[in-house]
Every structure is written in structure tokens, then in C-alpha cells.
Amino acid sequence: MAENPRTEQTLAQLSSILELLKGPSDEQRFAGLLLLTKSSFSLDDKVVLRTVFDAIGAAFFHRLLRSASAYQSLALNILPTFLVDDSVAVQLQSLLQDVLELMDQECSQTTFDASNFDNLLNCLQALVRCAEVHHLLSNPTLEVLVKAWVKLVDTYPDMASKLLSLVDFILKQCKSYQPRTHLVAANFEKTLLAPLSPVFAKVQTLVKFDLLPILSRALQVLSNWTSEKQQGAMSNASWPLLIRQGVHDILQSKLDPSRRDLALFLADEMLKYCGPGWATEKYDLQEPLPAVEGVERGTFIVVLVNLVRVDLRVKLEQIAHDLASTISTTAQKSSEPMVGVLFDILERATQTLCIESERLVEESEGIVQNNVRLISSSDLLLLRDGFVSTMQTLCEFLTIARDSGILTHPVVMASVRLLSVWVAEDTETITSSIYNLIPYILEVCDASHHSNPALEPLEFVLPALAQFTTDFNTRETLVSASSHVHVLSYLMRQIQRFISPFSSHSTQTSDRGAAPPVQEVKDFVNQHSIKLSIEILLCICASNGNICNNATFLNAVPTIARCLFLVSAATMPSEEQVTFVNESVQFFF
Prior knowledge:
Blueprint: H1 8-21, H2 26-38, H3 46-56, H4 58-65, H5 69-83, H6 86-91, H7 96-108, H8 114-129, H9 133-138, H10 141-152, H11 157-174, H12 183-202, H13 207-225, H14 239-251, H15 257-274, H16 299-325, H17 338-364, H18 377-403, H19 410-425, H20 432-451, H21 458-468, H22 472-480, H23 483-499, H24 518-525, H25 528-543, H26 551-571, H27 574-588
């Protein structure tokens, strides 16, 4: 048997050291630590490290950090040795507040002690990486880290880089955390976005690019933490404008695609959180805007959209080439993660363009005054021409995908969605190429639903189909493409989902228990997609009554009658219900 390297004499030496470390006074603990450094034992040995820590205890370090500066320095020199062990670091979490306070004090001093701050940073790195998210957020962790970063970014870049890495680490942990109050999100904006955004707007060094992923991740966290109603309420803060300024500077620079993509990703997150108006609106600030060169209203969205549509065209050409060379009907994942971001930006920009176009019409008709438009007429025309060109690109791409037999590719679905959004808002640009794609678009929606029944992609297409029904010739195109069958199938699925909780009840009008609450019925029938579906079906039926006699429509009669009964039962006196149902079914068919 191999001889134990720790002889009885050595073990006795450790025992005497532990007695000192467990002593009643801190002086004895200091003496024990001094003897430990001169012994043959090393704190690199985890067994020794944990044994020594158990003897000292966390309270010893707490007292040192709250005592005179000499003892603070001693604690900060010793602590990193113990914090390398995760099990010890977890037991020292109570020191997080002490270390944060000391770091905040150091940043507030007129003379900066870099060595002392470096020790604080080393301790904080270990404490943060072992802390629970709620513990980090309940302490001013992000506030202190960001404050220190702003102070050191120009003078101590290495330390600033470590601070930003810690911020990034905390943000990654926050993605899976849900705070109990919206005040956490509000504080998040104040302590993180507000101090970082001025630096992002003004700096002209690589620091601007270091901030891109941090700001994007912070916005992702905020979007997860806040409801849609809470998002976009940025009228009293300057940070959205400052971030817009920084993104604008990057997009106008000649940079490699990877850095430009990071800026586009940040722009997409800002549009999601602040709404489409972020790209154009001039906020009514309640605080002075830091001295940076402003972006003229409307200029930013022109730069953004033109860059995005050019990038999208290049990427779609490559994807189209891949689709044409690979004949497959199975789902394929795009090799371009940025494609989704580009589609998202264009879809939100479409909303802004439509709003601005409506404002232009209202202004020309004298409905509104004081020039409320945020985009000039010339820029508006350029944007519209750019979107028309993009729609032509989408049609070309979808034609290649159709000819290649591709139905469930994610980029195909994204193209269908964006094209439908545009057609629903701008009927003047509807061309024969779009008409020819209607059957394929309906097939794509049907295939996507069958691959994932939880999805209803036809909802995105319904507004465009409703636009098509306004003209007799296009209604004939819809009939030949069997669009009424697709819409009716969608409507039937929605009705079935709505009435399924009541399916066990009798459909006789005397059974009052079969009806859902009045408000539920009203909410269902007032859904935009339900209204559009009925509108489309009625228009098609008016154009070609023969389609009402086919099997699909006839099989739908009992279910639609059931839905109509539930509506009547919840909203009408009993004597009117039978008449209402009968007349409604006759009108439909």
C-alpha cells in the first residue's frame, strides 16, 4: 500500500493551524492564515481549502470588508483564493452587497486605486457566477457594474472588458427569469439602458460594437418581462433616441457584414420593444438629450429599409439557388439566421410606411393640420418604390420555390407573410405575378398548418385575400384557386375550437346550458380573422353561387349552425333564436 504523503507531523501542523483559525479573535485567525502560508499545505488542494474555510467562516470576511481599509485590502487579497471553489463561493454570497458597495465607493473616489479595484473585480466575478438571478437583481449589481464600466471604458479597457462580460453573463441568466413586479423592468431601463445609450451614441471606437450584443440582449430580456401594453412607452426617455443614433452611425459606415448584422439585430429588437414608431418618431423628452448629432426625422428609416432590402435580395438569391438545386418538399432550415431579422424589420417598416401614407392623404385633403408627418414626401416615395422592388423580389423567390416543390421552408413562409402584409395595405402594386402565386400561397399555408396544427398561417394571408375579393376578376381567380375551401376550413377549425367546451351539450334551443358567456361569444365573433373569413366567403359566394352546393360547404352547415345557435343563445331572447339560425343558414348557403 502506498504511503500517505501527509505524515502524522504534517496533519498535526494543520490541526494546530485550524485551532487558530477557529479562535475567538480575528488576531488568532490572522496568525493561523500566516502559519498556513508557511506550511506544506496549499489552498490549491480543494480539501484543504474547504477545511480552512469551514474553520474561518463567512462572517470573518464580512467583518474585514466592513472594517478599516488595511483589513479590506487583506480580505480582497485572500478572498479570490477561496472563491475559485464554487461550493465555497456559494457560501460567500452574503458578501456580494459588501463588494458592490466597495466597488461603488472606489468609482466615486477622485483618485482611483486600480490595484484595489482589480481585486474587487476578481471577487465580484466569482460571486456573480455562483449567484441566483433574483439575488443579483435584488442588489444593485447591474447598476454598479455599468457605472464602473462608464468610468473606466476610456482609461482601463481591460477592466472595462471584464465588467461588460459580467453584465453580459447576468443578462444571459435573466432570459430564463421572470420577475414578480414590472418595477424590475423599469429599473432595468434606468440602470442599464439609460447610462449605456449615451456612450453608444457618441463613441467612435470599437466600444460601440462591444455594446451591440449587450443592448440587444437587454432588450430581449425586457420584451420577455413586459407586456405589449407596457412596451413602447418611451416618450419620456432619451435612451431610444440615443440607440437609434448609434445604429444609424453604424449602418452608414463601411463595415464588414458581421458587425452590420449586429446593428440590424439591435434595430429589430428596438422595433419590437418600442414599436414601429421608434424608427421615425421624435420623442417628447422630459430630460435633456446629451449633445450628439441628431438624426432628421424619417432619415433613419430610409437608411434602414434600403440597407435591409438590398441584403434580403442577396440572401434570397442564394437561398433560391439552393432550393432550385435541391428538389425536396421537406422542411429546410435556413443557413442565414439574419434572414428572419430582415423580414421582421421590413414587416414593421411596412406598418410605418402605411401610416405615413395615410397621413399624407389626410394632409392633402385638409383633414389634419400642422404637418404631423414624420417622413418627407420625397423619402416616402423612395421607400414605397423600394418596397415595390422588394415585393417583386419576393414574387421571383416564391416562383422558384413553387417550381421546386418547396412548401414548408421557413423563408418561404416568411416571404408569404411579408407579401400578404404589403398587398393588404397597398392594392395598387398588385400584379399578375402575385395573382399567379395565389394557389401556391394557399398550399404553403395548408402545408405549414398540417406540419404543425398549432399554427394558422392563413391568418396572415386573410387581409390580402379580402383585398382580392373587391374586384370581380380577382374573385374568379380566388374561386379557381379554391381559396374558399381553404378559408372555410380555417373558419371551421376556429368554430370547432370555440364550441368544443360545449360540444357535449344539446343543440336544442331549450338547452340554455349550451351557450357560453355572452362576452366570450362577442370576443369570438369580433376577432378580425373571423370577420375577414366570413367577409371573404360571402363575397365569393355572391360572385359564384354554385360553389355553395359543393360537398365542403354542405358538410359545414351543421357546425356553422351550431356556432350561430351559440351566438343567438348568448345574445338573443329565446323566441328569436330559431328564426335567426334558420335565416342565417339560408343566407350563407
